[in-house]
């Protein structure tokens, strides 16, 4: 290649093309210099999403603000009166108090559970199966979860899983009464004693044999060891003997107050001999209902059927009562969301540099110290994301409270979202007040959302 004077150009140089810029800073002679499609084309592709957001997000928010300034029927402008009534309504304060409990307790408990599960999945076999089981409740709707836990929290241990477990443990540690429904006939020689016990009306002398009839025990509730009642052995000089039996003959017949051949003894009943208000001897009835009270002084004694024989069996915890209803619903929320927290935290754990953990172990740190001073600080961004996300969802909790809480205690378990629904559609028919509650709930949610968005932007920079 040669220059304009016919001299060769330097090797590798290329002559400038026509229309190219000359010296630095010169304007291009042609074209705009913009890369990519024009801006209006981007708006065309964004238009469906913008319309969707406008119809399903922006318009409902603006209309709720507008509707909150009108009365229940929407015919009279009342200004801020709905907000004034909202903050003077006791039900709103109960709902707000419960929302505070939810915000403080639920996100922390769920995050801790997710952290524990995530750490465990790194140390156990079949970790994938464990994750699937824990995450599975996320696939169940909140309505279905509420129905499940309404059954779990039933008071009757026969149908409520929680109380079935509790009563099983209780009966293992401290067996329940043998015959809670047993009682004497009105004409039986028994009278009510202290604490629900039954005393034989007349005092018994050592060497005497007595008979104690009871009714009120279903044949199906009799122990398998029960046998036909007998009169029992003859009492010794310093003994009182007798029989406690079910004074009822199947199919009718028999004589009241008399041991009939078809009547069953009541085994495992505690019988006491009482003298001057103190228990001096104790015995338990055998399979045929007989007992012997030994080593008695030569004085009359009161024969007592101990109160422990007739106490009502332990029925478990009143989960759906006004005291425990909110913690019970938080337990259901934990079951649903623990899998979500576990998955996010497990992803954060997998991103932690293993060199940092190994360096701490080499320096002599225990596993607990490694977890507390290395793992948790490195996981703090993920943990914060989980907590803030759960706080946003907790503020909007509605389904579980509506389904789990019975109508009698729903006011005690009330939250803002449920109060909004009850005021607007659940019988209140005051959509002005309901819209005010919706706006108030939005105001509470927005700060957490802004905080979350700013965090994401900082991480992406």
From TrEMBL:
Annotated InterPro entries: MetI-like, MetI-like_sf, UgpAE/MalFG_permease
Cellular-component GO terms for this entry: plasma membrane
CDD domains, sorted: TM_PBP2
Residue ranges, annotated region (Disordered): 1-31, 176-204
Localization (cell): Cell membrane
Keywords recorded for this protein, A-Z: Cell membrane, Membrane, Transmembrane, Transmembrane helix, Transport
Gene3D superfamilies cross-referenced by the UniProt entry: MetI-like
Annotated membrane topology: Multi-pass membrane protein
Signal peptide extent: none
Protein name as it appears in the record: Sugar ABC transporter permease
UniProt source species: Halostreptopolyspora alba
